[in-house]
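Many introductory courses stop at the sequence. We go one step further.
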Amino acid sequence: MKETLLPTPKELTLDQINQRFATDETARAYWESIHWPKGPVCPHCKNADAKRIWKVTPNEAKKIRAGLYVCAECNKQFTSTIGTIFEDSHIPLRKWLIAWYMLCSSKKGISSLQLQRNLDLGSYRTALFMTHRIRHALQEPVFKDKLTGTIEADETYVGGKTRGRGRHFMGNKVPVFSLVERGGRVRSQVMKYVTGKNLKAALKSNVEPTATIMTDELPAYRKAAKEFASHQAVNHSAGEYVRGLAHTQSVDGFFSLLKRGVVGTFHHISEQHLPLYLAEFDHRHNTRFLTDGERTVIGLQKANGKRLTYRQPMSK
C-alpha cells in the first residue's frame, strides 16, 4: 500500500534539519504541519473548524506555554503533542525531531548512548526511553492488507553465545520470523517457538492465499505453506541457495542487516524489547526507496495516538 507523503521534506538532510529545528518554535511549526496537515484538530472533541479554534499567545509571566490552543466547542486547551509519543516529555521538541531523523536515516540503527552524546541528553536512561518511544510509534498494531506475490519466509535467532555450549546452542537465543515480499515489504515478529503450527498461523495472518512461498528446507514449512498457491524450498544444508526463481536471498539480506545492527550498534537486545527493534528495521526496509526526509515524515505520521510510559511495558 503506497504511503501518502508531504512534498516539502523530500530533500531533507541532517544539516537542513538542524537549521529547520534551530528553535523550539520552528520545530513545533514543522511538527504541526505533519500532525495537522489541514489545520489544528482538538484531541478532546475532534473539532477541526479553524474558526472555532484559537491559538493562545505565549506569556511566560502568566505561565502560558508556547503552542497552546483553545477549542471553542469543548472549551478545553490542548497542544499538538497531546495523544502522541511526545506528550508529557520534558525533552525539547527540536531534539525529538532530530532523533527521529537520525534513527530513520541510520541504516544499521543508532545506539542510545550515541544519541545521548549527540543531543546532549541528561542520561542514558532518557536516551534509551526516547528511542523506545520512537520504535513504539513505528510499530504497526494491525496491518490493513496482506503480502502478495512471491513471499520469502525464514527464521533467524538473535542472542549471544554461551561459553562451552557451542555456536549452535539456542538456549539463550530468541527466534525471529520474517516475511519478505520480493521487491516489496517485510514483516517481522518474535516467535517463541518455531513450529509448524506457529509458522502456519503467521503465514495465514500476513500473506494472501494466492502467493508463492519460498523457504529453506525446514520440514515445518511443508505443512505451513500447504494452503498457498505454491511452495518452493532450497536446500541450504546441501549447498543449494538458488534454483531458478527459488531462493531466500531477500530475507537473508534483511537478516544480515538486522544482525549487523544487533552486533555492531546495539551489542545486546533483550527479548522484552526485541519487537521494538524489529519495528525499526522493518520501517527502514519498507521505505528503503525513499529519501531520509520522506522516511522520517512517514515515521512521524505514525506518532499520533501512541503513548509509551515508564509504567507500561515497552513491548508485549
